[in-house]
Every structure is written in structure tokens, then in C-alpha cells.
Amino acid sequence: MIKRQSFWLSGSALFGFIFLYAPIISLIIYSFNESKLVTVWSGWSIKWYVSLFQNEQIINAALLSFKVAAISATLAVILGTMAGFVLSRMGRFRGKTLLSGWVTAPLVMPDVITGLSLLLLFVAMESMFGWPAGRGEGTIIIAHTTFCLAYVAVVVQSRLASLDETLEEAAMDLGAKPSTLFFLITLPLIAPALISGWLLSFTLSLDDLVIASFVSGPGNSTLPMVIFSKVRLGVTPEINALATLMILVVAVAVVAAIVIMRKQNKYTS
Amino acid sequence: MSSSSEFNQEKSIIVPSWREAGAKPFVQIDQITKKFGDFTAVNSVSLDIYQNELFCLLGGSGSGKSTLLRMLAGFEKPTSGRILIDGVDMTDIQPWDRPVNMMFQSYALFPHLTVEANVAFGLRREGVKSKEVALRVAEILDMVQLGHLSKRKPHMLSGGQRQRVALARALVKRPKLLLLDEPLGALDKKLREETQFELINLQDELGITFVVVTHDQEEAMTLATRIGVMDQGGITQIAEPHQVYEYPNSRFVAEFIGNVNLFEGTVIGEERDCTTIQSAEIDGLLKVNHAISCAPSQVVSVAVRPEKIRISREKPDADANTTDGIITDYAYMGSQSIYKIALKSGKEVRVTMQNATRDISDRLTWDEPVFLSWDAGSSVVLTS
Questions:
Q1: What is the pTM of this model?
Q2: Which of A63, A121, B150, B352 has the fewest CB neighbours in a 10 Å radius?
Q3: Is A38 helix (H, G, I), strand (E, B) or coil?
Q4: Which band of pLDDT confidence, cut at 50, 70 and 90, is reported for residue B9?
Q5: Domain named ABC transporter: which ranges (chain B) (predicted)?
Q6: Separation of alpha carbons A145 and A138, rounded Å
Q7: To the nearest whole angstrom, how far is the Cα of B110 from the nearest Cα of chain A?
Q8: All domains in chain A, ordered by first residue
Q9: Interface of B with A in 110-139 (CB under 8 A)
Q10: Other C-beta atoms within 10 Å of B38: how many?
């Protein structure tokens, strides 16, 4: 009976893995294809990786993407932590439902709407106060911070909710003033949530195509925008190589986030 | 007052400060009230605690004992009233500036710090030099027998070890007042008994005033110099453990602490050292060897503890404080046996008997008619 059950379980696990990872694995394999034709296999080669690193347009787009991702992830962590604190620690206050709604809205709002509304806001702000002057790196960072913040706030809020508040009382009781208390007790205890929030924001920003397309300006194309425009002219093996590298970066970030979250759970239970 | 308290005073050479008339209290709680919205958690409590006391606040859940403790620590601000510790008004003093430390029920050990760093936390905040910090931490960890575990994180410790770390961390700053919230609540029975005595010894050694909150009456009896029984936000009785047990001042206290048989009756006669009560419940007279201040023919309760009642097959030679019934329940518990006896009035009486001999062949058992009796000095009249 037990054996039969474990057969079914491992069978469905296997099916799930194939379903999820088969496309990715075929992409990775074909990125090492020697042939110029994407679908025809003619032998192993890393020449597409070499030509990728000689392509200045892609390199610049990648650098821009990493820069935007790093800055907006950092800003999202700072602002999202503040939002998370307000939501979990301020008790009931006027507008709390509105705030928590606002925080979770970007999680469910279609990217097209987020992108469009931000674009309209930027245009209106520019005509009213002259800032932001034009659209480019700055506006992409603001836009990405806005939706990443939502994820960080949710992660931080749930971490704070599970954090024993008597720990903070104990610290106060032992002579820690609120500022000391925050840096010595609260911050180290929620650090895993902050780090995984940062990594999550980083990958979300790196992956985003739709919002960035709305709010970027001429000459400020992020990596997904470049890929998308290239793919429209046909998939080249170079894109396969690029996609493989991006999968690598995202996978590392996500695995790191999971490992950190696991470690945090070991502490508290 | 009673003969037993005179005996105590003769035995101990130093008279405890709470029994002295003009002694200066160390902690003064003055008309403290705490309201959460419409709910009054603590209702106008006044209480004096003296130096070197181990004072227990005893009460059920929702009695306000924890709220009172949290006000002493400074985590809750009183709605009205004030608290003085060593003569200093604590009303506007923040928790981190109070000469008070607390041991939390959940222990609240910092999970990301080692045992050593947990204990050192308070000293570091005080700005004590690192050499002295190390010395004092080592000293207190030795005192609670945890010196060998100083590099461990809390999640690698057992429940009992965590409790000791929490205690060490609260004691290392040498507070004027140590607050303990259900200090033994999370330990199993055996460990709890051991730790009770350790706690008393430690308090004796360090000379720090302890205030302990507990819902466990046995724990309060063992630990406390005095007990404050709390109910619905107020203090019902403040007295030494044996007084709380032998001379409860209300039905609530009598029933909350230990087991008790309460007989209702009407006062029919009152002299200086004898009150006579007619009780339908025992179908006879109750005599108590103290006077009460009450209206004539007032309805009162007489409390008799189960171990103070004698049980016998022969009718005792007495005109009061005696009744008869049938054993309905019997439980052998090793050191003692518990009997439940149904009186003719339907009232159930609980009696405990020490098993002084090994032989139980002649024991009283189910459905036997028996007589009960007790001394006038063993019962207390309760008017509220």
C-alpha cells in the first residue's frame, strides 16, 4: 500500500519536473548548438556565448538591467520594510485597509495597467513640475521600486507577525533604547526576510518587460526589451545563450532566497 | 493573632519587614488602575512590597496579575495611580531606564545570540567594560550551572536550560527588583519542584526583591514570603502563605487555594471567642472559635479544609461540628486517600486522610456510613 502510494507520488513529482524544466533544459542545450539554425543540431560549441559578449548592444542592456535591478531592489527593501512595519505594528488606524490594499495591489494588477498608469503619471508630473525630465533609467527605477516594494512589504509583514514581540520587550527591559533595539534585535531577526525580499525584487526587476517598455525612454532599453525586439526578427542561438545566462542568475538568486528563508525558520521554531 | 503565627515569630530571630508596623516598603503600588478601552484589567490596586521579599501575585487568567507585572516593568502605562520603587516615582520612567528586570514566561531569549551574548546584552547596554562583562557573565552562568554551554544558541538548549539562561540574563544586571512571569510554567512537574527551591536559594543569596506572577497555587505557596490573591483586576487578600490557606478572607480565596468544604448556615449566637451557626446542610450546629462582625441571623459560609476533618465509624462525642453520611467515592493516592461523603442534605464533603500505616485491610470503603467531625479551631467563617 505504502509502496504503491510512493510510486504515485514519485510519478507525479517526475511529471511535474519534466513539465517545468523540459523547456528550460532544451533551451540550455540549444544554446551550445554550433548551427546557425536554432532548431537544427550540429554539434557542441560556445561560439554564441563569445559572440554574445562581443555584442555591445546586449552588454549595455545587461549592465543597465543589473543596475536598475540592484538600485530598485535596494529602494524596495527600504520602503517595503517601512510599509511592513506600519502594517504589522501600528495596530488599527484610519486608512489601514487602504494601505494594505495599496501594498498588495501590484501583486494582482496586470503589468500593462501598472506600466500605463505610471507612464501617465510621469508625463503629467513632467508637464507640471518638470520632473522627471524625460524618461529613462530614473523612471524605470521608480516604476520597478513601486511594484517590488509590494513583495518586500508582504514578506516583511509576515516575518514581523511571526516574530515574538516579547523579544523586543526583553531587549528594552535589559536597557536597550528603541533605536538600539531595532539594530541589535529586530533587524538581525528580520534580516533573512530582507535579504530574500531583495533577491526576489532583483529577479522581478530583471525579468520585467512590460512596465519597463512603458516607462523607458529612447536609448534606455533593458535586457528583456532588447531580447524581445531581437526575437521579433527571429530567434538566434545568441538569444538562447543570453537566456541561459539569465536563467543562471535568476536561479542563483531564488535558491539563495530559499536557503536564507529555511535558515530563518530553523531559528524560530 | 493565631497561635501558629506566634510560634513562627519565636522561631525566626529576624522579624520579616512586612510584619513590622512602621517598616518602609520597597515597592509601593498606589491606587493603580489600567483600562484597555472599556475593559478594566487592573482596578485600583494598592500594594506594598518590602525589601528581600519574594512576593507572589496569584490569580487565574484574566485576573490582572500579568498586567500589574507589566506596569511594574514599564511596558504598560497605568491609566491612573502611581508606582514607586525604592522611593522613586516610576510613572514617567521608560522600561530601559528602570532598575527592574523581568524574566518572561516565554523566556524571550534572543535566538540569534549565544547564551553568553544573551546574558551580556544588558551589561553592554549599561556600558560596562568588556573585561567586567565577561567576568560577570561567567560568574552568573556558573551560578545557574550553565558555564559549559555559554557558546550555544538558545535553540540548542533544553527547556530547563533556557529557563536558567533567562534567569541569568535577568539577574546579571543586579536589578533592585526582579519580575518573574510564570517562571516555572513551561517546565515539567519534577523539574518545576527542583527549580522552585533553587529559585528560593538564589533569591536568598542575592538579596534581590522578587515579584512572581503565577496561576499555580502550589508554586505560590512554596515560593512566596507573601501572596497577593488577585481576582477580576483587584487584590482579594494579601497574606503569608499559611494565613492565605488557613484563614482565607473570602469564599473566592478559600476555593482558589486548595480544596475546601463550604457549609452554609445562619448565625444564631455570638460570643467573644465563639460563633454558633445553625446549618441545614449538616443538619446540626457549627461552632467556630472566633467572633465575626455580622448582623444577627446573617447567612454565612463556614470553610473546613478536607485534611482537617476526622472520619470514623463511631459517633463522635460532640454537640457541634459533626455530621454523618455515606462514602460515595474513594481514591487511594499513595501518601493519602481521598473520600467523598454524601450527607443526608445532599451536600458532598471531601475528606483527605494520611495513610499513616501500610495496612489497608481495615480501610473505610464505598457505601459505608461514617461520621465526620472537626475542631472549632479548624474552621473559618466567611462572610463574602
A1: 0.80
A2: A63
A3: coil
A4: very low
A5: 27-257
A6: 11
A7: 6
A8: 62-268 (1.10.3720.10)
A9: 110-112, 121-122, 125-126
A10: 5
pLDDT band at B248 (very low <50, low <70, confident <90, very high): very high
- Residue A249 Cα, gap to closest chain B Cα (Å): 29
Q: How far is CA A254 from CA A77, A156, A163, A260, B71, in A?
A: 16, 17, 23, 10, 45
CATH of B25-254, one of 3.40.50.300, 1.10.287.110, 2.130.10.10, 3.40.309.10: 3.40.50.300
Q: Where are the alpha helices (DSSP H) in chain B?
A: 3-11, 65-73, 115-126, 130-143, 159-171, 189-206, 217-223, 241-246, 251-256
Candidate CATH numbers 3.30.420.40, 2.60.120.10, 2.40.50.140, 3.90.180.10; the one for domain B261-382: 2.40.50.140
| CB–CB contact B73 A170 (8 Å) | no
Q: How far apart are CA B64 and CA B235, in angstroms?
A: 9
Cell 534567569: give the residue.
B167
The answer to whether the beta carbons of residues B143 and B174 sit under 8 Å apart is no
Do the beta carbons of residue A238 and residue A51 sit within 8 Å?
A: yes
- Beta-ladder partners of B381: B302
In sequence order, the 6+-apart residues with CB closer than 8 A to the CB of B20 are: none
Query: How many Cβ pairs closer than 8 A exist between chain A and B?
Result: 64
Q: Measured between alpha carbons, how far is A263 from A258 in angstroms, rounded to an integer?
A: 9
Band of pLDDT at residue A202, cut at 50, 70 and 90: very high
